[in-house]
Amino acid sequence: MDNSSSKNWMQLKIPALSSNVGLARVSVASFAAECGFTLTEIDEFKIAVSEAISNVVLHAYPNREIGKVSLTARFQDNCIIVVISDSGSGIEDIDKAVETSFSTLDDRMGMGFTFIDSFSDEFEITSAPGEGTEITLRKFLRSSEQNDDNV
Amino acid sequence: MRTEIVRKEDTVIIKLEGEFDLESAQGFSSAVSDLQWEDFDKILVDLGAVTFMDSSGLGALLSRYRDVTAAGKDFVITAPSHTIREILGISGLNRVVDIYPDVETALDSDGKEETESDG
Fold first, then answer.
1. What is the pLDDT of residue A150?
2. Going by DSSP bridges, is the β-strand pair A9-15/A68-76 parallel, antiparallel, or unpaired?
3. What is A23-68 written as a DSSP string?
4. Chain B residues in contact with A109 (beta carbon < 8 A)
5. Rounded CA gap, A26 and A32, in Å?
6. Do A50 and B52 touch (CB under 8 A)?
7. Measuring CA to CA, which of A27, A135, B63, B85 is 20 to 30 A from B71?
8. Cα torsion angle, A20, A23, A28, A31, sign
């Protein structure tokens, strides 16, 4: 692994469709592999990404045509940073939304943000009702020897 | 995700292969709902070939678990990967659903089996 990974980034802009959830997480997984994350770390981070994209598909655009979801990933300071954003309905109450077992949909477990919290190292949400939501996920590279043969 | 249904005596084995997420959860739910309840005593969901699962897959499992047990039948899971065991543990589903290391053990057993995620 050379130091090019420290300057690497990617961007996806895709329709918020359930069929695109896999595309988004596999893209991030490939990017994370280039950054030196282990398979176990990638498996776990994929869950966090999948939950964030699924939230957009399920909640962001309830009453109109299929909206867009934007995903960017970059590797910086031994950390992969993924930002997922939409221009949908936004979240009325973020504190409530992140509670385990809370969901506005009857057939959902409300575990999405719990898994995001469990399988990323840090996450933050900004949202404005009627304007959209942005969620940032971070996962740090645990052992620098995995990719720091670049000095 | 590919779904294969095999009947073995009083058990229906649902073998899943691939990624169990928002896109595939509905197909799994439909496959279980389409089964004839009176024909069997146990549903066994084999996760041995499931390469990914998130809360959408988990929710589909929990919903079908509720349906099956409400009908007086058993619902068990076999062969989850390490990461899937983790999410079963975080959600608490491992405390209500019997989890077996493989299909053969589940078929041979008529009681509770190990459910811890470590090991």
1. 41
2. antiparallel
3. HHHHHHHHHHHHHT--HHHHHHHHHHHHHHHHHIIIII-SSSS--E
4. 55, 58-59, 62, 91
5. 10
6. yes
7. B85
8. negative
Q: Is A108 one of the catalytic residues?
A: yes
CB-based contact A66:A17 (threshold 8 Å): yes
The Cβ of residue A52 has, within 10 Å, a number of other Cβ atoms equal to: 30
Least Cα distance to A123 among A133, A134, A113, A138 occurs for A138
Contact A133, A88 (CB under 8 A): yes
Return the number of CB contacts < 8 Å for A and B: 62
Q: Report pLDDT for A147.
A: 47
Cβ–Cβ under 8 Å, residues A91 and A112: no
Is residue A51 among the annotated active site residues?
yes
Helix (H, G, I), strand (E, B) or coil at B13: strand
The per-type count for chain B, helices as H runs and strands as E runs, is 4, 5
Q: Do B86 and A44 touch (CB under 8 A)?
A: yes
- Chain B residues with CB under 8 Å of A54 CB are 21-22, 54-56
Nearest one of A60, A68, A11, A2 to A35, comparing CA atoms: A2
Tell me if the pTM is above 0.90.
no
CB-CB neighbors (< 8 A) of A19 in chain B: 23
Q: Report the alpha-carbon angle B95-B100-B102, nearest 5.
A: 160
Residue with structure tokens 């099956």?
A: B68
Residue carrying structure tokens 């130091």: A3
ipTM above 0.90, yes or no: no
> Given an 8 Å threshold on Cβ–Cβ distance, is B87 in contact with A51?
no
